[in-house]
Design a protein that fits this description.
10 helices; 7-stranded mixed beta sheet; 20% helix; Rossmann fold; 462 residues
Length: 462
């Protein structure tokens, strides 16, 4: 069992006498906190009605891989007892976020100008000032909140049978309920970083890459670099869904994994993958599809290729029927012109132009998935209409009386795979738009993560 150290809060005294009030920042949880677990943040020993500014800083690794200092601030008014509970108190106007939200200072952070200290993500530093104090004034109080993505005792190893795959589990002799994780169109080994966090929750976890496109980078006039995992498909065309049969066979040989209790979780194109797998594979005991689709879509490649004739997925070599895109390459032209790129548009236009017969053939028959299904979608998703398609999946299954958890967040975007404890303010920077407001997407992440913990515990056992 991991041993936690109790929080030490630094309180700086104001004034010169022992009777001065000792303002405090109280982080009332054992630290470090496993990302996604509840947190509690309060201010105490203030004067009744006193206005104070709470400033937060942390090092964050952005999408480009650079580590930058991110900051946020919020102004609060103490209650009649000189307290502020951030889970119940909304900040005053001019703060980095609106509404009562104990995670508000975490997700509302934006890049700052200070020096980066510490490892990315891990520690948040708080400083409390009087509301009208200068930025460089000594703080009234200081405290820190430390996060970690995974427990240190998790054992992670490479899986030679599958390029880029990793297997993670807590140590011990007992067989554990098992998860297979599948990423989206980013491809490569990025999904591997999710293995240890889910293993920390008591699962044996196989993070399974299945596609590895060329990497774009500073390679001179020749263009893209080689794929990270060259033995995997470089085109998102006819990806074999039956690959999961091999994964199950491998898991059955691992002493940590209970192959009778396997759940699958996929995000974006990975959600398309796991829903198709759930239809074909009765041994799957739980299916979680994050920002999903209700139909199979056209495939694509890294360069010019035939349009409207290739599927994204196949079953034992037989391509699935699919819905073609419309103006797919034209939409991507914005990457070079600087115009906003919203991949949802070629999806929506393709679906609108397709005949009812084409859509019916491409529809994923989710009513044939006997296992419980969880879907989570964003109503403002600008990669595809995950909110609408999640609602379609839920309606089909509920009509059939099948166990389904449906989460649709009207103002959230595509990135629902987090825990709500990291900045969401930069998700729409640059030409590629993911949609959603920072607040709605962060709150959707937190709600989705909590729902997933319960879903897998209910479906697979703890």
């Amino acid at each position: 069992m991991t041993q936690f150290h109790p929080l030490t809060v630094l309180a700086l005294w104001m004034g010169f006498g022992a009777s001065a009030l000792a303002q405090r920042i109280v982080v009332d949880v054992p630290q470090p906190v496993l990302a996604g677990d509840p947190i509690a943040l309060q201010l105490a020993d203030l004067k009744p009605g006193q206005s104070v500014r709470l400033h937060a800083q942390r090092a964050v690794q952005t999408f480009t891989g650079q580590v930058a200092l991110f900051e946020s601030q919020a102004v609060f008014q103490a209650d009649a007892k000189g307290r502020v509970d951030l889970s119940a108190a909304a900040p005053l106007p001019g703060s980095s976020y609106e509404g009562a939200d104990v995670r508000g200072l975490l997700w509302s952070m934006k890049p700052g100008a200070g020096e980066v200290k510490g490892k990315p993500f891990g520690r948040v530093d708080f400083r409390l000032h009087a509301a009208d104090a200068a930025a460089d004034a000594p703080p009234l109080a200081e405290a820190s909140l430390s996060f970690r993505n995974a427990l240190p005792e998790v054992v992670t190893r490479k899986v030679e049978a599958f390029p880029g795959a990793v297997f993670a589990s807590l140590p011990g002799a007992a067989k554990r309920p098992t998860l297979i994780l599948l990423g989206g169109s980013e491809g490569g080994s990025m999904i591997a970083r999710d293995a240890a966090p889910w293993a920390s929750r008591g699962y044996a976890v196989l993070a399974l890459p299945y596609y590895s496109p060329p990497q774009w980078g500073p390679t001179g006039p020749t263009g893209p670099m080689a794929p990270e995992l060259p033995s995997l498909p470089a085109e998102f065309v006819n990806i074999p869904v039956d690959r999961l049969e091999q994964a199950r066979d491998w898991l059955a040989q691992q002493p940590e994994a209970d192959a009778r209790r396997i759940g699958v979780m996929g995000t974006s194109k990975g959600a398309e993958f796991v829903l198709l797998a759930g239809v074909k594979m009765p041994w799957i005991q739980a299916v979680a599809a994050i920002v999903p689709t209700d139909v199979v879509w056209e495939g694509w490649g890294p360069g010019p290729g035939p349009v409207g004739v290739r599927a994204s997925f196949a079953w034992k070599g037989e391509p699935y029927a699919f819905v073609p895109y419309q103006d797919f390459s034209q939409e991507f032209a914005g990457l070079s012109t600087g115009q906003p790129v919203k991949i949802r548009r070629p999806h929506d236009k393709g679906r609108a132009a397709a005949s009812p017969e084409v859509i019916a053939k491409a529809r994923i028959p989710v009513e044939r998935i006997a296992a419980p299904v969880l879907v989570a979608g964003g109503g403002d998703d600008q990669l595809w209409d995950s909110g609408g398609m999640a609602a379609n999946i839920a309606a089909t299954r509920q009509k059939a009386g099948l166990p389904t958890v449906a989460l649709v967040f009207p103002e959230a975007g595509h990135f629902l795979g987090g825990t709500g404890t990291g900045p969401t303010t930069h998700y729409n920077d640059g030409p590629m738009k993911n949609g959603g407001t920072p607040a709605a997407t962060a709150r959707a992440q937190a709600a989705t993560h909590a729902a997933l913990l319960k879903f897998f515990a209910d479906s697979l056992g703890r």
